[in-house]
Amino acid sequence: FLDTSYHDDVMTKRVKYENDTICLVASEDEKIVELIDVEIEKKLKTLCVASSHRGAVIWNLALLPQYRRRHIALDLWKEARKKLLEKGIHYCEVWTSRMKRQSLVSITRI
């Protein structure tokens, strides 16, 4: 985590979202090792910028560095994706601030 651009953006409490969310965690030995927070639009263009249909935004995706390369993030994304599809959501955006200016790094039809 300290080797990312988010090293100074540590939250100690979970964010409360205005819309429906999918919030998942992965744990090992009662310790949270990863989390993903996905917020779902109630109304078109209130969260997503590039879709002609209601979508979702991944606001938080965090994984402890020592758990990298174990496919934990992929597995949690697959579960979130499944839940989005069950809700009729077929579009998701992911944002990053890793670059000099905040930019959209992934728009995906799921």
Q: Which bin fits the share of residues in helices? A: 10-25%
Main sheet properties? 5 strands, mixed
Number of strands: 5
Backbone structural class: mainly beta
Descriptive overview:
The protein has 110 residues and is mainly beta. It is 14% helix and 35% strand. It has 1 helix and 5 strands, in the order E-E-E-H-E-E. It has one helix at residues 72-86; strands spanning 21-28, 31-40, 56-63, 91-96, 103-109. It has a 5-stranded mixed beta sheet with strand order 1-2-3-4-5, covered by helices on one side. The protein is globular. It starts with 20 loop residues before the first strand and ends with a strand. The relative contact order is 0.20. Residues 99-106 have low confidence and may be disordered.
Quick recap:
The protein is mainly beta. It has one helix and five strands, in the order βββαββ.
Keywords:
single chain, 110 residues, mainly beta, 5-stranded mixed sheet, 1 helix, 5 strands, globular
